[in-house]
């Protein structure tokens, strides 16, 4: 009888659970085929990031299917990004372990690594937030969604760094993916909701004999401590540990299980910062600014203030394309003033919204009983569905814009956005109800959940501004 970390499957779910387990066995037996697929994806990836740079920018009449640049744009930002995010919620980090070209290249480089120990600066827990925020903001400064050279700089630069880290640290490992990848934190957070995960049966592990000297051990490339693994966050779903010591297998679990019953035991302040200020703050600002009347007002106000003082150079000068968007032929140039207001706008949005989310959750924690940082961080985890939904919808806007440009009817988008936001909001409130229920009951539970729901409502308002109000 299975007794892994998630709730035991029952009834009808038994068949589905066996099917999921068989997928885990299949993965473990087909590592060579997986590597072949990874090399194929890496090849396609390299063509898509390098090809457009050596191709002219597309004319206005070009289509996704007639111009490599537009095709690459659609592939990366219209499909790859939003749907890889969605896949985290559905099948955990399978993308990382089975398809990601950057992870595969980093691991391949690691075979020839100097084998150095991973230094402390790499294991700093703040990287997931810092790397996500810097990449998101830089992407906006250089218009990464529109032009090929910034794509090469951002994605290509990240790939080169991943290979370089692989060549220096660890051996046959993915040190880059585990600690430094700019989306590692976001993927780790979203994978907590996945209904499938590799699970460890602690009792079976303890009963199993220790591997003999010379017996092959599992090479878990993202360095997951297998014996104590309770979270899907760091696991890349590669399948290599399936069956190890008769105690690890892929299994079904309730999508709420990890957030409610596991996340509270391992509070991580940096993860809270990533959720509140990164995914629900920086991301909101990054998608807001192009349509925000506040952005336009701030820019005009500052421009007038500068002109009145005879300081016109910030309005007249730009910077190279790798610092600020600079494509005069496309009539698309960001001045220094544009860049300054952009940075200020995204930072202010992140601080304002992130700060308010934090305040509302702190009040909810206090209402539920004596304030404790551990409880606060646990409650922050209940906003993960909204954080993921927001980032997905923001990226999906690029998909919609590209589909609209191709003449595809997009009348359904507004309804889809409303349904996803409503679903994510309901999920967050339900999670808050469950988590608060671990601490208190009765009216306190109701009041604390209502307070947490205010944070959810604020997030919905933030996205509604972009989709319907502005
Ligand atoms: S725990 Fe490690 S070896 Fe096991 S599936 Fe996850 S990434 Fe692969």
Properties at a glance:
470 residues; mainly alpha; two-stranded antiparallel sheet; disordered N terminus; two-stranded antiparallel ribbon; binds iron/sulfur cluster; globular
Percent helix among the residues?
55-70%
What profile does the largest beta sheet have? Answer: 2 strands, antiparallel
Strand content: under 5%
The number of helices is 19
Inertia-based shape: globular
Ligand identities = iron/sulfur cluster
Structure description:
By secondary structure, the chain is an all-alpha fold. The chain folds into 2 domains: 13-191, no CATH class; 261-469, no CATH class. 63% of the residues lie in helices and 3% in strands. It has 19 helices and 4 strands. It has helices spanning 13-29, 31-50, 68-91, 94-99, 101-110, 127-141, 148-168, 175-180, 184-191, 202-207, 257-262, 269-288, 293-308, 313-316, 336-367, 373-381, 384-405, 413-437, 442-469, and strands at 196-200, 248-252, 326-327, 332-333. The strands form 2 sheets. It has a two-stranded antiparallel ribbon. Strand 3 and strand 4 form a beta hairpin. Helix 15 packs antiparallel against helix 19 and helix 18 (413-437) runs antiparallel to helix 19. The protein is globular and about 80 Å long. Mean pLDDT is 93; it is low at 1-5. Iron/sulfur cluster is lined by residues 97, 198, 218, 220, 222, 224, 226, 229, 235-241.
């Amino acid at each position: 009888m299975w007794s892994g970390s998630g709730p035991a499957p029952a009834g009808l779910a038994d068949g589905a659970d066996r099917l999921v387990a068989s997928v885990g066995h299949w993965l473990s037996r087909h590592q060579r085929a997986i590597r072949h697929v990874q090399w194929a994806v890496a090849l396609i990836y390299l063509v898509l990031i390098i090809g457009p740079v050596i191709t002219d920018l597309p004319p206005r009449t070009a289509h996704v299917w007639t111009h490599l640049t537009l095709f690459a744009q659609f592939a990366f930002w219209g499909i790859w990004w939003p749907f890889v995010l969605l896949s985290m919620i559905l099948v955990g980090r399978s993308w990382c372990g089975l398809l990601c070209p950057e992870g595969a290249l980093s691991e391949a480089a690691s075979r020839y690594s100097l084998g150095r120990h991973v230094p402390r600066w790499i294991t700093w827990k703040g990287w997931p937030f810092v790397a996500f925020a810097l990449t998101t903001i830089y992407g906006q400064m250089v218009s990464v969604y529109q032009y090929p050279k910034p794509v090469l700089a951002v994605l290509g630069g990240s790939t080169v760094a991943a290979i370089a880290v692989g060549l220096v640290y660890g051996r046959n490992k993915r040190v880059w993916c585990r600690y430094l990848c700019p989306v590692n934190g976001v993927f780790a957070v979203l994978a907590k909701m996945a209904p499938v995960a590799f699970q460890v049966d602690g009792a079976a592990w303890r009963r199993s004999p220790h591997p003999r000297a010379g017996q092959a051990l599992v090479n878990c490339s993202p360095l997951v401590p297998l014996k104590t693994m309770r979270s899907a966050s760091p696991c890349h779903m590669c399948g290599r540990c399936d069956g190890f010591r008769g105690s690890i297998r892929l299994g079904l679990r309730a999508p709420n299980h990890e957030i409610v019953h596991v996340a509270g035991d391992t509070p991580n302040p940096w993860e809270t910062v990533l959720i509140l200020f990164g995914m629900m703050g920086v991301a909101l600002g990054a998608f807001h600014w192009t349509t925000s009347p506040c952005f336009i007002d701030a820019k005009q106000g500052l421009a007038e203030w500068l002109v009145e003082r005879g300081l016109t150079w910030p309005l007249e000068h730009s910077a190279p394309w790798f610092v600020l968007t600079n494509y005069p032929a496309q009539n698309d140039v960001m001045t220094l003033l544009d860049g300054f207001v952009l940075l200020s706008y995204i930072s202010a949005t992140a601080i304002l919204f992130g700060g308010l989310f934090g305040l509302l959750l702190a009040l909810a924690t206090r209402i539920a009983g004596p304030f404790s940082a551990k409880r606060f961080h646990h409650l922050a985890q209940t906003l993960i569905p909204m954080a993921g939904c927001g980032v997905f919808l923001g990226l999906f806007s690029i998909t919609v814009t590209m589909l609209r440009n191709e003449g595809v009817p997009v009348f359904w988008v507004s309804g889809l956005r409303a349904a996803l936001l409503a679903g994510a909001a309901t999920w967050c409130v339900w999670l808050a109800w469950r988590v608060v229920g671990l601490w208190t009951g009765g009216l306190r539970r109701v009041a604390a959940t209502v307070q947490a729901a205010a944070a959810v409502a604020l997030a919905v308002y933030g996205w509604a501004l972009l989709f319907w109000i502005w």
